Amino acid sequence: MTVKELVNLLNVQDVAPFKFCDYKHDGEFAKFVYISDGEYKDLIEVFDQRPDYINKYDMLDEYIIDYMNLKGQSYGNDNIEIRFADVTVDELFILIKNISDVDRRKIIFKIVRNSCCLLNEDETKYAFAIFTILHEIGHNIYFSKSNKNVLEYCLWESNFRKKFKNGVGMYSEIPSEEWADEYASKNLDKNLDKVREYLSILVK
């Protein structure tokens, strides 16, 4: 089964737009996207011009916001999508096992194994695929609950990610990542039941 087929089976394709791409396109097999390439390019541009502002995300500095608004971007929700590698469930499981961040990989395995009772190898692979799908959906919900526009959210979120890149804390401690993990964990087993039911029908 492909991940795209799994998304349809779980009936979550209406929660957020899913887009399936060549894995080699950007090197990431799953990603919640809320800012357009053009908007992101402009954001990097202002950082390059005013590097002294990079550490002021918490203030949502008016200079950055005003500058970005002058660029004429909308910063609406039109660009929201969940990008997934167009791979099979088996291929996705291999990609997850090969995540370069060892701590993150261990946490994913711990969450999945603590969230459901896995009976066999097939269920294990589906469970990890479902976790990944739900995790990205969690990002979408977290963004919606933030009541921030795209620009405000990007500045706020980047503050935490910059700290992680500078060696402060773990990836899973980034608030949006932690929330998405919890959402996926809470909803994993009941969605895995849908796969179990589907597989049992195939056996019959």
Molecular structure report:
The chain is mostly helical. The protein has one domain. 60% of the residues lie in helices and 6% in strands. It is built from eight helices and three strands, in the order αββααβααααα. The protein has helices at 3-10, 37-49, 62-70, 89-97, 102-115, 121-145, 150-165, 175-203; strands at residues 18-21, 30-33, 81-85. α4 packs across α6, α5 packs across α8 and α6 (121-145) crosses α8 (175-203). The longest helix is centred in the C-terminal third of the chain and has 29 residues, at 175-203. The protein is globular and about 60 Å long. Mean pLDDT is 81; it is low at 56-60.
Q: Could you list some keywords that capture this structure?
A:
204 residues; mainly alpha
List the helices and strands and how they pair.
Blueprint: H1 3-10, E1 18-21, E2 30-33, H2 37-49, H3 62-70, E3 81-85, H4 89-97, H5 102-115, H6 121-145, H7 150-165, H8 175-203
Parallel strand pairs: 1-3
Antiparallel strand pairs: 2-3
In oligomeric terms, what are we looking at? Answer: single chain
* Helix fraction bin: 55-70%
- The end-to-end span amounts to 18 Å
The amount of beta strand, in percent, is 5-15%
DSSP helical segment count: 8
Uncertain runs are 56-60
Main sheet: which strands, in order across?
1-3-2
Secondary-structure-derived class:
mainly alpha
Mean pLDDT: 81
Estimated radius of gyration: 18 Å
Largest sheet: 3 strands, mixed
Element-level helix/strand string: HEEHHEHHHHH
Shape: globular
Query: What is the tally of beta strands?
Result: 3
Q: In the residues, how many domains can be counted? A: 1
